[in-house]
Amino acid sequence: MQNVIKPNLFKYLCLFSIVYLVVLMTISFAMNLLEIKEIPGLTTTIIMICAAYTAKLFVDNEGRAPHKKEQKILSAGGLVSSYIVSILLTIIYSIFLGMDLGVYVSLFIEMPLLLALPILLFISACYYLAFYIVFGKVAQNMADKIK
């Protein structure tokens, strides 16, 4: 029986988180300095670029695309990680700008759960699907190119 070394998926999720945090912070501060209020779809674009970079690192290090189980773990982990990084960045950004975090807390408290939950589930499903495609089909295309 052949010993197969499984990749450390936590390592790739940490890499995704760090890259996402650094890129998002850099762009957020640049937008603040340039007084740009909002660019629709920017956060989603950044998340997908960081996920594609992580998929590329996986393919380069492992010599293959993630298997289905790894793809599911990376997709779910990427989703959770992106939420955690976004919350951390909101806290850091608010402290840096001297904003009151109570505004964010009151927003969550005042929003009706029956409204917020379906919206959050829909957005999460869309992001999970995007991660799943990046860690699946996109990673497979990258792996095919190195063969």
Helix content: over 70%
Number of helical segments with 4 or more residues = 5
Spans with pLDDT under 50 lasting ≥5 residues? none
State the domain count.
1
Distance between the amino and carboxyl termini: 26 Å
Rg (C-alpha, Å):
18 Å
Q: What structural category do the secondary elements indicate?
A: mainly alpha
> What string, H for helix and E for strand, traces the elements in order?
HHHHH
Shape: globular
The total of beta strands comes to 0
- Give the rounded overall mean pLDDT: 89
Strand residues, percent: under 5%
Give a short account of the largest sheet: none
SSE map:
Layout: H1 9-33, H2 42-62, H3 68-97, H4 102-110, H5 113-146
Q: Can you walk through the features of this model?
A:
With 147 residues, the protein is mainly α. It has one domain (9-146). Helices cover 81% and strands 0% of the residues. It contains five helices and no strands. The longest helix is centred in the C-terminal third of the chain and has 34 residues, at 113-146. The two termini are 26 Å apart. The mean pLDDT is 89.
